[in-house]
Amino acid sequence: MNEHKWKVAGLSRPDAEWFRDLARWSTAASIPVDFIKCVSVAEIQARLDAGEIFSAVVVGVETAELTRDFVSEMIASGAPVFLVASTKNGAEVDWSQLGISAVLPPDFRRTDLIDALNIHATPLTQQPGPRLRTWTGPTTQGQLVAVTGSGGTGVSVLSAALTQQLAAQRVTALLADLALNASQSVIHDTRDVLRGMQDLAEACRGGWLDQDELGSYLFCPQGRGYHLLCGLRRRRDWAGISDRSMRVMLEGLCRSYQLLVAEVEPDVSTADAAAGTAIESTHIARAVIERSDAVVVVGVPSMLGVHAMVRILSELTRMSVPASRIIPVLNRMQRRFGDRREVAAALSNLLADTAGADIRDIVFVDESPYLEAALRDGVALPARLGARTAKAVVEALPNQHMPNQNLPSRHWPNKYSEVST
Fold first, then answer.
1. Which of 85, 209, 328, 374 is disulfide-compatible with 61, CB 3.0–4.6 A?
2. Where in 264-387 does DSSP place strands (E)?
């Protein structure tokens, strides 16, 4: 006699025949299964959050919430997903690409379910508690620097200059273009449509990649000393990137590099107070800033530029970002000392009523006459462009030092890395 007992969650239409049959078998104790009917993915997740353990999850193919993210999350909790589906037009569908462990026909018998449970699931008697996903990637924990600012302030160029300057300190560095209006591909002259952030986030739905696979998503700029992860091809593509896969991607990149510099949008609001609705397009910026070790806020020395910078700094402090980790940078400054003193005083007065009063000193970046020529020729950016910001970032990072400076640099092959300019 089978002494094993399983706890199975089911998700389907209430009128599905297999759904009723499975509930009847469980109630009559004709199968050693404790069956839990669920009406939505949210209910299953709530039960898992409350500490319940499932041996498996059985889902109907018609369920709209059947996504790769859901399957990955169930597998991470220790519950393989069984799909109830029939063949379509006589052709088999490869559901394993979605992470499905077994496919059952709509008229499956009790023995079919028990066989699948014996092969793929763990009985309750052998489950001491929730099983956590094991990290199989690199174990080095790198540091994350977020760079943001309103449009037209030079955020993209300063992000590249900052990454180049930090990479010169013998650390493995990656510049990730995570802005909604991505422009790093233009700045780095990638010359072609490459796989980038959207593709990497999609690949992370099932977990992190190995190092060889990661290299195929990156671009190697000549003479810069760092790698580039290109951004979205179209602004609207953010809707295809889930919050979970975004966070898995960030964690994996931070473990693969000693330093990750990420350009993000300045809007980190979680809701529209007037409309009472969530602003979902900001989840990328929020995920980066919540994980970051330092945040660089870029502005310009004008009336509107200072106003926009104060708004961003105030939003960051409301997000509980420590003031010691926020670095204000004013770009395109003139060399007159009086102007710098006047702008610094204006920022101080405007931030007096917020936690921003304790934000670090402003970093002033002068205009560079050689910048346009460097961008056009595809060569290294002027060192002075990112020198002061890099110094402030190193001082703001935890422990006051760059991590793991003795580790060797990584060099992945890239068909564009040898293109001469």
1. 85
2. 271-272, 277-278, 294-299, 326-333, 363-366
